Amino acid sequence: MTSATISLTAPGRAATFAQVGLMMQWQFRRAAQMVSFAFIMQIIMAVATVFGFGLLIGTPPPEAAMHLATGAATISLIMLGLVLAPQLTAQSRTEGSFDWMRTLPVSRIIFMVADLTLWTLIALPGAIVGIMLGSWHFDVTLSISPWIVLAIPLVALIASTVGFSMALVLKPMTAQLMTQFIVFIVLLFSPISFPAAHMPQWLIDIHQWLPVTPMAELMRATLISNHFDMPARSIIVLAVWTVLAVFGATRALQKRS
Question: CA-based, 20 to 30 A from 207: which of 19, 46, 102, 232?
């Protein structure tokens, strides 16, 4: 307890990293069962996406196969960040543990960084399994860009940032209902596992302003770099959503006293 107190209150960069590490430990221990469940669900989601779409579509043409092969990993990352992470955050607000956290001698920004880092790390195994299964099942040869080491954590971080902000800005019940709506939209009406050309133009236009399509494009551009590119517009959309989510979550954390 003494060493933890010193780390929480001492100034300097080292103390900041210590605070983030301690908050990650606290978050992990507080929700150990949920974290274990999230880890398992990530693997199941990746497997179910690959084989489920495979059963529905059969043997897809090459272009569709590349979308399916990369889509499993993307869906796994998005589901954790935009669905499971905000659900746990909303639950912590309802049960009161979120309010207790605010009494700790730690900056609320550090709490947010620790929470987002934890969810990003949890998302990585499912994404890796999804990539391997997708390329094997749909017989797609990957041309992995070195930027993949940044792309996967970045997609997980952006999804978690948006989900975390949503859970703080909205009322807990509203946030949980919103996550169910996101599941429906991501699985059926987002160009992640299929080309955007399959959708009506009005839906394509809507997705141009949402973060899901750019996240899928980033994954495809780094996993099959010899075939897909990352449009500059998608980079801007992701950057804007990240800034807005961080701003919203920061304001919400600071306002709740």
Answer: 46
| C-alpha count within 13 angstroms, C-beta hemisphere, residue 183 | 14
| DSSP string across 123-144 | HHHHHHHHHHHHHHHTT---B-
State whether residue 257 is helix, strand or coil: coil
The one-digit pLDDT tens for each residue of the chain (257 residues) are 444 443 444 445 666 767 777 777 777 776 666 667 777 777 787 787 788 777 777 778 888 888 888 888 888 888 888 887 788 778 777 877 777 776 767 676 777 777 777 777 877 888 888 888 888 888 888 898 888 888 888 888 888 888 888 888 888 888 888 888 888 888 788 888 888 888 899 999 998 898 899 999 999 999 998 888 888 888 899 889 888 888 877 777 776 54
